[in-house]
Amino acid sequence: MDVMKKVPVREQDPKVRATNFDEVCLGYNETEATEEASRCLTCKNAQCVKACPVNIDIPGFISKIKEGDFEEASRVIGKSSALPAICGRVCPQETQCEGKCIRGIKGESVSIGKLERFVADYARQKGIKPSKCENTNGRKVAVIGSGPAGLTCAGDLAKMGYEVTIFEALHEPGGVLVYGIPEFRLPKDEVVKKEIENVKALGVTIETNVVVGKSVTIDELMDKEGFEAVFIGSGAGLPKFMGIPGETASGVFSANEYLTRSNLMKAFRDDHDTPIRPGKKVAVVGGGNVAMDAARTALRLGAEVTVVYRRSEEELPARVEEVHHAKEEGIIFNLLTNPTEILVDENGWVRGMTCIRMELGEPDESGRRSPIEIPGSEFTIDVDTVIMSLGTSPNPLISSTTEGLETNRRKCIVADEETGQTSRPGVFAGGDAVTGAATVILAMGAGKAAAKGIDEYLRAK
Amino acid sequence: MYKILKACDLASNIFLMEVEAKRVASACEPGQFVIVKIDERGERIPLTICDYDREKGTVTIVVQTIGASTVRMQKLRAGDSFMDFVGPLGRPSEFVNEDIDSLKGKKMLFVGGGLGTAPVYPQVKWLHEHGIDADVIVGAKTKDLVILEDEMKAVAGNLYITTDDGSYMRAGMVTEVIKDLVENQGNKYDVCVAIGPMIMMKFVCLLTKELGIPTIVSMNPIMVDGTGMCGACRLLVGGEVKFACVDGPEFDGHLVDFDQAMKRQNLYKTEEGRALLKEQEGDTHHGGCGTCS
Ligand SMILES: Cc1cc2nc3c(=O)[nH]c(=O)nc-3n(C[C@H](O)[C@H](O)[C@H](O)COP(=O)(O)OP(=O)(O)OC[C@H]3O[C@@H](n4cnc5c(N)ncnc54)[C@H](O)[C@@H]3O)c2cc1C
Ligand code: FES
């Protein structure tokens, strides 16, 4: 074994997986995990822990793996994270824990994410569940949204003894974890549902089919239903469109719609009623993780898929691993290209898309070099489906029905980073609703901070 | 689970259900809708609210069988339950928040076409309860498809019923009734609310524009979540993209791009049709739906 290199993780063959929705990455087995764990230097002043938004005791749990005590390893992680099987799969470890790993200076960093996943999967398969807090304090807290922010906040509060109810707009809890991230990256029944069960096992109640702001307002929850504090973890679900001609044509979808039909409504399965029109030739516009997920979903539904992105490969915001997986599976990348018009046939269907070539100019305020159109370089690509994946913004449903709740220019709820406190007393917020579209682990970090903030607020009250 | 307290057929392919849904019943207003999912594998189906009883905590919906899920839904009886029932979604009708006195000074005309009669009913009822009697035109293809006649009679000012084939009451399209009321009988209307098939709303709007009557329509495009998350329900209104589920479902009919909306409506025709065929024919399904050979 070369200690400088990660123990490779087994994956489904690209050719095979391009036609199924089974998980791409197969994870470590006990031998592989133990071997990989042995590469950890167990640093005293561990940089990886600091780089983790929920500060998991990484050397601590890896030491337990080394000892072969996987159950104890899961307990170490459980102290900081309620959703380890999820994080082990979808966190951008390369820029967080693994990015700071000392092993990574000379060789490859320790595969912390894959180890976390191994431990969480082990615990789940062994049926190890967190236990309920014995002494509830009878004080009620409402959590809006059951994404990673809401689940984490609710779980932490329940552990402290609060009576927590999560209100979720959709029929299924999980937020982006169930409607956005596809099955082949994050199995729903196997992984997501089970981790949500664990949160429920802590004593959290989840009421689905409640759209806060419509079915009930925050004021009603506090004044009439006896909730002493509210956490808003409603995410950033509003899709953006480009505003180019032809965008309302049939065959143009937001990535959210396409992914929701496939993931949440299980359109890819014959025994479910929701239709999806997979398309034969699909263009996905955008270069983030969501775009990769949409592209790889369309591919699995049988389409030929091209990703159209206005900057170059270097600027692709998606995780390197995802881009790599997408390429392996046969997705075509049309970079430095931007759509200018969607061409529509006489029945209102997409029949093609006109694009223009781009070149990179000076860096803009985001630090990335901004793309500039090359005049006269228009060309048409032959597609029957276009999936717009241009980012999302927070839904104004809650802010517009809650008086005195401050939002910023980007419609994000303004909240204190340390405590989650908003401009309304007793109302806290965190996750994508506050930051705009970000990551699972940052949302969890915010949920955690807010749970502490709420506890302090209620103790002082 | 959301219990069905009453289920009955209004026509061969239209049925009514009263469903226990406390939160929806206590918060809903005329003009809003719900999304219903029958079970694990069902679709999320948007349905306008036809009536509600805040005390009993119930909401009444009227459904037309169009896809696999609605066909399965029709088989449910009182005592059965829906797995999911969420709402109220969308914005209430504008008049709900208007000053009652100024509203009393207005002459309103409601036009319900086919299934569209169901969402018109709670609006007319609301006005009736607030001391305002509105004129109502109900149109249907044929006699058997006229729904909620008695209920409407009880709350409407003047009720005009027309059937396309002349099998009941007046004969002809709703537009002909509007024309008759305005041009021959000299009625004046300050606002018209038209709800029905898109094609009907389109033609009502063309006419009322000519007649100079501001018109509100209720749009029912394809939806998934109903909370603004997917954009499936987007429409062009006055050249701007709007999401029917959060910006609507009611819009200024003179600004809606109906042709574009109707084309989008066809998006899933083959697939939905296929799902429906599969449901009706079971294993015997082979061909004919346009997607299989
Ligand atoms: C396709 C896709 C792929 C992604 N891939 C990754 C990845 O690989 N790694 C990663 O770290 N991040 C990824 N992300 C981002 C990550 O999923 C989000 O940053 C994270 O889920 C945000 O969590 P949240 O709890 O703030 O909100 P969400 O997960 O969005 O959850 C919000 C919940 O609140 C509910 N809600 C909204 N409004 C209301 C209301 N009014 N009343 C009641 N409920 C309401 C919503 O239905 C939803 O369930 C991805 C996102 C998408 C869309
Ligand atoms: S139904 Fe999804 S945004 Fe309107």
Beta-strand residue fraction of chain A? 15-25%
The average pLDDT score of chain B comes to 88
| Strand arrangement in the largest pleated sheet of chain B | 6-1-2-5-4-3-7
Described by strand count, sense and barrel closure, the largest sheet of chain B is: 7 strands, antiparallel
From the N-terminal CA to the C-terminal CA of chain B, the straight-line distance is 40 Å
Oligomer: heterodimer
Number of separate structural domains of chain B: 3
Outline the fold blueprint:
The complex is a heterodimer of chains A (461) and B (293).
Chain A: H1 14-17, H2 30-37, H3 47-50, H4 58-66, H5 70-78, H6 84-90, H7 103-106, H8 112-125, E1 140-144, H9 148-160, E2 163-167, H10 176-179, H11 188-201, E3 205-207, H12 218-223, E4 229-232, E5 238-239, E6 252-254, H13 255-263, E7 281-285, H14 289-300, E8 304-308, H15 320-329, E9 332-334, E10 337-344, E11 350-363, E12 369-373, E13 379-381, E14 385-388, E15 392-393, H16 396-399, E16 427-429, H17 432-435, H18 440-460
Chain B: E1 2-11, E2 14-20, H1 22-27, E3 33-37, E4 45-53, E5 58-64, H2 68-74, E6 81-82, E7 84-89, H3 100-104, E8 108-113, H4 117-129, E9 135-140, H5 149-155, E10 159-163, E11 170-171, H6 174-184, E12 191-195, H7 198-211, E13 215-218, E14 234-237, E15 240-243, H8 244-247, E16 250-252, H9 258-265, H10 269-281
The structure holds flavin-adenine dinucleotide and FE2/S2 (inorganic) cluster.
